[in-house]
Amino acid sequence: MVLDDSSKLVNRRRFVKYTGGSSIAALAGCLGGGGDDNGDGNGDGNGGGNGGGDDFPSDTFNTIVPYAEGGGSDAYARHFTAELADITGTDYQVENLPGAGATRGMTVLHDRPANGYHMGLASPPASGLMTYLLEPDRLDWDYSDFSGLAVVGRSTTIVTANPDLGIEDYEDLAERVRSGEFTTTGGPGLGGIEHVAYVFMKENHDMPIEDFVAYDGCGPTQQAVASGEIPFGICSEPSAQPFIESGDVEPIADITTSGGLISDIPSVADFGYADMDSFGYPTRCLLGPPGVPEERREALSQAFKEATETESTQQWEEETGNAVLWGDHEEAEQAWKGAIESIPEEVNLDAVREDMQE
After folding, report:
1. Fold of 157-279
2. Which residues in 136-168 are b (16+ Cβ under 10 Å) and which e?
3. What band does 67 get if pLDDT is binned at 50, 70 and 90?
4. Less Cβ around it within 10 Å: N or C end of the chain?
């Protein structure tokens, strides 16, 4: 799902009128007293304590990233969890739990206490694709279970190549794939946006790529492209940016019609190929376990709004190229559920499953 200008999502530089727009500092204290945090009451540093009515927030925030360190989701999670902790005067920790196309990390998040201290950085539709690709009885939770907390950004997905290969543009890449010169590509894991893009390119761009190498994140993918292990790779634009700036890889095309959110990158549509807008725009959402109280969701939403407006976030955005925007807890839930629900309509799931089994 591509979120357009009619959405409540807003760029950090734009003014947003939000009902009750006070900071979380003003909300802290009004949420304590008599509530059940679903914790063990021991304040163990993992957000499991504070049962029995302590002011919220007053414990450690824990953010799960269902991908390896060094990728786009990891960058957003680490920056905004740190900003949240700074704004609220609390501690934080980030856990990277990659595996099974984000399903491992999302499963752990699902089972954490719904007290507002546990959250995960999801990037729909990528973080939910595997829920369709796995056998139904492999998961004991549903994608609609999670509690939306906030949206903090969006990115796009691009194709990069080894500069030594002299690939002129996407059309040249496609022709050289058809000629048999290039037979392999790669990206971060099976069942994610990049893997789906690979299947889409084979089916819709007449590119008979034989193999997709699954790496443990975008960082390793770009390293493989730079070293010549694979001729070209598919990855999120922010994750590829350091490799582009160093000259280790070069951008070939954006798989969506955005043409790059960080720098000017031609779209595959510019060369007459079908775009991948329906799944190529990861939205960076903070989600909580099922059942996070509404008051705490609202408080966290406001805290993340404040986090998108800090000077340090502005500097981070300018230095990294990670696009920052804000959406409230309802928008986060809508972005997550809407993107996941659109997957069967936009993605040939049977073709992706078949490729995963080869």
Report:
1. D-Maltodextrin-Binding Protein; domain 2 (3.40.190)
2. eeebebebeebbbbbbbbbbbbbbbbbeebebe
3. confident
4. C
